[in-house]
# Entry
Amino acid sequence: MAQSKHKIAIVGAGVIGLGLAYAAARRGISVSLYERNEKAVGASIRNFGMIWPIGQAKGKAFNRSMNSRKIWQELAEEAGFWFDPCGSLLLIRREDEGHVAEEFYEGRKDEGYELELLSREEVLKKSPTAKANGILGGLFSRTEMIVDPREANLKTSALLKEKYGVEFHFKTPIDREKLLEIAGENDHVFVASGPDLESLYPEAMVNSGIVKVKLQMLATGPQPNNWRMGPSIYGGLTLQHYASFSHCKSLAAVKHRIAQESPWFNSWGIHVMMSQNGLGELIIGDTHEYGHTHDPFINEDLNEYVLDYLHEMADFPLKSIARRWVGIYAKLPGQIDFVNKVERNITLVNGVGGAGMTHSLGLGEEVIHNFFDENIP
Ligand SMILES: Cc1cc2nc3c(=O)[nH]c(=O)nc-3n(C[C@H](O)[C@H](O)[C@H](O)COP(=O)(O)OP(=O)(O)OC[C@H]3O[C@@H](n4cnc5c(N)ncnc54)[C@H](O)[C@@H]3O)c2cc1C
# Structure
């Protein structure tokens, strides 16, 4: 590996911090990474682990997600963590959802996706979890993959330390004074502090328009007898949630029906997805509450909405819930990131919202390329 003369520091060992560290370390740049906790415990280990190009808007977001997916595969092989290129499956249970699937398929099938519109029978063959009752068809996409975010975070950190010599400083909260000190010792500092942006840059938190989004999640224990669910699944509610489907004219009918029939889903930002990790656990979610400050409570009524919807479309052997948790991410509405140079050699990398796993490694690559590539020998 060519050694670069450059030195950088990163604040935050979430997936954005690690994505930046991996991109820099692969170029031979010296990296020091500071994390206030003993290990990462934020959004980056609380998510589904979905690498999700199917949800990304055409253009920059989709291209970044596909580059990210490629890097995730390289990283998983290099660091030795589990991943599953299982794809994703929309379970179509209403006619209007089928119209959106068809419109999406026609509009985007030639743009890097590998899409298939499935009949009812084909869905039941592909997905051991899809319930026969009520299913009309499906939209399968091959580009989605799953990692276990907890394992990926730990093994990526170990790889960065052992193979690339990244210096990790855990249990090291960075305050303003320490930040300026490390800025003096490095060519550049990247602050990837997630939803706690205000501790270091309160003005950026206020002026950028970043909001904090609280989500509720659930997980079963490992499914018995090595039962696997196949592709990750989602239902019609999810069509409202992702930018990728927003151009579909037929989406208006789905939105109208949901608003009339079951407005509580929109009140709590609920859409229902399920993936399975390498341990066999099913990861289920989720709800979305938007604001600057959130209460710490898990609202069981919302979990019931999620589970009722899930059980209408999916069946699986072990149904009891083993764990429930909340997670918070920072989102810049209308944008896919917030990359902002706030001082001569300090840049904030934040605001990636609900697609931070999907975009992190591609974003890290773009940011490090923009700052350093022309200077690397
Ligand atoms: C429930 C849930 C489900 C999700 N599902 C998916 C999914 O399936 N696919 C997908 O693409 N995205 C998903 N996301 C989004 C994704 O997880 C986030 O976008 C991503 O993890 C954000 O990463 P981050 O590194 O910016 O933030 P974080 O993970 O919050 O990391 C920030 C780190 O910075 C540290 N830190 C903060 N301040 C300081 C300081 N002053 N000094 C030192 N350290 C500091 C924190 O301790 C923390 O470890 C989900 C998010 C949630 C919450």
Remarks:
- Residues 7-65+148-207+335-375 form a domain with the Rossmann fold fold (CATH 3.40.50.720).
- The longest strand covers residues 211-222.
- The chain has a mean pLDDT of 96.
